[in-house]
Amino acid sequence: MDRKVGRASLKFERPPVIESSASVVGKKEGEGPLGSSFDKIEEDGMCGKKTWEEAESFMQQQACILALEKGKLKKEEIRYLFAGDLLGQLIATSFGAGNLEIPLFGLYGACSTIGEALCLSAMTVAGGFADRVLAVASSHFATAEKQFRFPLGYGNQRPFSSTWTVTGSGAFVVSDPERAKKGLAKITAITTGKATDIGAKDSMNMGAAMAPAAYSTIARHFMDFETDEKAFDRIITGDLGEVGRTVLLDFMKEDGHDLSQVHMDCGMEIFDKESQDTHAGGSGCGCAASTLSAYVLRKVVTGEWKKILFVPTGALLSTVSFNEGQTIPSIAHGVVIEHME
User: Fold this and answer.
1) Counting Cβ atoms within 10 Å, is residue 246 exposed (0-12), middle (13-18) or buried (19+)?
2) What is the set of domains in the chain, with CATH numbers?
3) What is the full DSSP assignment across 64-94?
4) pLDDT tens readout for residues 211-248
5) Exposure pattern of 187-215 as b/e (b: 16+ CB <10 Å)?
């Protein structure tokens, strides 16, 4: 029997497996340190489409199709689709992966969306409600800037605390272990995050706004499972960047936990700080999703990392809330992913 643990966690006695995954990214991401690991690199940021939004939808759909192809699966074998993006009313998803004609749950967790999708996917499969589901998230630099900040033609200067929204998508097939044709890794536990708000208002410093949510979820996971950082080969956040990472490590240290040797941030891995001018690092739904598929998961598959805690983070602001002077709540979801023995 699967069981509830503590106040916010679940442990799966018969863990669902990640049967296949795929990543699709843009040209800038392909030029970064992880370039050779991505399944597909789109040299044209427009992907041959008329708008940036259509391009993001195309990339999200392509990630899903590639994940199915790599797993030698047909879309008819997928019971549900858990998908999301950064855009208003989830238009990248509804015009993208939504076109696959798979029953859809549209999700919004900002940059934490792939964590939310994987949590719900694992719960659905472990609960016996589906043999296979598909989890996907996407973002695009141009669509995010257009919606949340300034038109690209404005050419505004970016402070060093800012992050660069990743153009990319990551998709994962999560399956019942007895139905899966193969298993890349298993999802053994999850910890659901809560909305956390410390009063941050700077939309150009998302790392600082999201770090408290990462701290909250990691600390909650440690408390629920009566464990600590020594249980993991890596504790991986989504897109805190350099600023947010510093804040997270300081918060954890005050609690008596030293994460400096095990912590990794996807936003700091996907770009090269010196040559790519992305300031604090990468962000966006596609950041954690594509990095998990292309880089992190491979480390788990080979056994180099036996057990990781994957904690993508999201800033829950909108153009409306920001323009009205509201603060920036944040959230993070924890997913324990382990090597298949």
Assistant:
1) middle
2) 3-175 (3.40.47.40), 187-339 (3.40.47.40)
3) HHHHHHHTT--GGG--EEEEE-SSGGGHHHH
4) 999 999 999 999 999 999 999 999 999 889 888 899 99
5) bbbbbbbeebeeebeeeebbbbbbbbbbb
The reported pTM is 0.94
Q: Mean pLDDT over residues 29-47, rounded?
A: 93
Q: DSSP letter string over 254-286?
A: HTT---TTTEEEHHHHSS-HHHH--TT-EESHH
282 contacts 307 by C-beta, under 8 angstroms: no
Tokens of 192: 């659901």
| pLDDT given for residue 154 in this prediction | 44
Average pLDDT for the chain:
90
- pLDDT of 293 over the 50 cut: yes
Place of tokens 């992050």: 163
